Amino acid sequence: MKRFFRTLLSLVCAAVVSNAHAQTAPSAPTSPWSLALGAVHMNFNTKADLYAGGPVPGAGVNASDDTVLGLEIAYSLNPNWTARLDIGTPVKTDLSGTGNLGTLGRLGGVKAGPAILTLSYSPGMWGPIRPFFGGGMSYLKVFSTSEGALQNLKVDNNFGGAFIVGADWPLADGYSISFTLQKVYLKTTASGTMGGVPVTANVRLDPLVSFLAVRKQF
Length: 218
What we know:
OMPW, Porin, OmpW family protein, about 65% strand, OMP/PagP_B-barrel, signal, elongated
C-alpha cells in the first residue's frame, strides 16, 4: 500500500507539472464518462448493542480503520448532475471489544466490500476547482469473517444511505485531481458464540470515507 501511495503521489505531481506547462488550446469534445483511481480511507464510527440471552450493558464494539485501492465510475447526465459508483478492493477490519468487553481484545475480523452509488450536483467552477455534493445509497457485501473471542462469527450484508461532498481540480488532457468525503450510514447484524453462549450484536459502522484520486475524462 505504501508503494501505491508513492505511485499516486508521483502521478499527481506529474499531472500538476504537465498542467503548468500545457498551452491553452480549444477544448475537444469529451465523453460523459470518467474514471477516478486512487486511495480510499475508511474511518469507522462504530456503535453496537450486544445481546447474550439479554442486553449486555456497558459493552461495545470498535472496528479498525483501513486504506484500500478505490475506483469511481462517473457518468455526467448534464453539466451539473453526475451519477457516481464507488467501489474498492475489500476492506479488512478487526472488531474489538470496548467497555465491559474491553478485556476480551479482538472479537473477530471482517473482510467486506462496500459499494456507494450517489447522484451529485455541481454549481460549476469556483476558481480553479469544481465542487460537488449529493447523496445516494450504499451496500455492504461481506466476503468472509475470522474468529477471535467470538466463534462462528457471521456478519450480514445490508443497504444504507450515503452523502457525498468533494471537488475536482481540472488539469490538462482530460485529467483532474479529485478529492471526496462520503459519510456512509451502514447498519449490520453480527452473531456468534462466546464460551458456547449465543451472542448477537446490532452494529452501526457509519464510516467516513475519504478518496484521493486521479480522474480521467474520456
